[in-house]
Amino acid sequence: MMFLRSLLFNIYFVIGQAFFVFAMFLSIPFPQPVIQWIVKRWAGSLHLAMHWIAGIKFEVRGKEHIPEGACVIAGKHQSAWDTFAFYLFLYDPNYVLKIELTRIPMWGSCSKKAGAIAVDREAGASALKMLVREVKDRMTKGRQVIIFPEGTRTAPGTRLPYHPGIAAVYGAIEQPVIPVAINSGLFWGRRTFLRYPGTITMEILPPMPKGLKRREFMAELEQRIETATDRLMVESGRPLPVDNGGEQSAA
User: Where does the pLDDT of residue 112 fall: very low under 50, low under 70, confident under 90, or very high at 90 and above?
Assistant: First the structure.
């Protein structure tokens, strides 16, 4: 049954994404709120499909830590789910993503129109300056910027070094940087076909304190996100998938 439900959901995901990307592409000549409206419809429809087809629900804790207006959210990234989840409850989220993704035909143009910030990680210091400049621009417009500090999806139970871009942003803006923990990879993992029923939990943590030095900030941010993520994975009761095909206990 799980195989069949996963198959049906994956078919819906591919067909639905193609339909909504085409709709977003057609909306490019119109003001930015139009394409954001379409993206939110896609996020909502995907959430319903997850629930009714794959048996996956989600819970968001700590919404009270999200201010009205502009902020930066630094989140754990385990699943494709993370790339649309914030559209389910934020007013105007803008994602930071790898520049390679903006080179995908149609989708790249749509992501730029929706306010995404593309970063060329090979560009070094100039990429950091561009990132800070673009984030500041979004802050003046009252938007929420989503950054995944590890830069890519990770398997549950694993960590990658946090990239320095988030520290550069933290030191350059007045708005809060808010850590977010997620256990989505236990239910919708990277490079996996099966979708496991259950409840994805996202926990929005209190904003990072102001005035930390770069090294202090990075250590504190990673500690908060990883500790909370580990706790959420244990709470789920699901085993941790391992890239080599084995599993290890979440406990």
Answer: very high
Q: Which of 235, 216, 200 is nearest to 75 (CA)?
A: 200
* Mean pLDDT value of segment 65-83: 96
Helix (H) or strand (E) holding 108: helix 107-113
pLDDT at 149: 97
Q: Domain range holding 167?
A: 57-242
**pLDDT score for 61:** 98
Whether 124 is covered by a domain: the verdict is yes
**What pTM does this model have?**
0.91
Partners of 248 in the beta sheet? 240
Asked whether 151 and 85 are in contact (CB, 8 A), the reply is no
What gap in Å lies between CA 221 and CA 74, rounded to an integer?
8
- Please state the φ and ψ torsions of residue 110, each to the nearest 5 degrees: -65, -45
Which amino acid makes up residue 28? I
H or E segment to which residue 248 belongs: strand 247-248
For the record, the structure tokens of 237 come out as 């009761």
Q: What are phi and psi of 60, to 5 degrees?
A: -115, 120
**Chain centre distance of CA 163:** 15
Residue from 153, 182, 160, 233 nearest 73 by CA:
182
Q: Do residues 157 and 240 make contact, with C-beta atoms less than 8 angstroms apart?
A: yes
Residue 120 lies in a domain: yes
Q: How many residues does the chain have?
A: 251
Name 181's bridge partners.
203
CA 89 to chain centre: 13
42 occurs within a structural domain: no
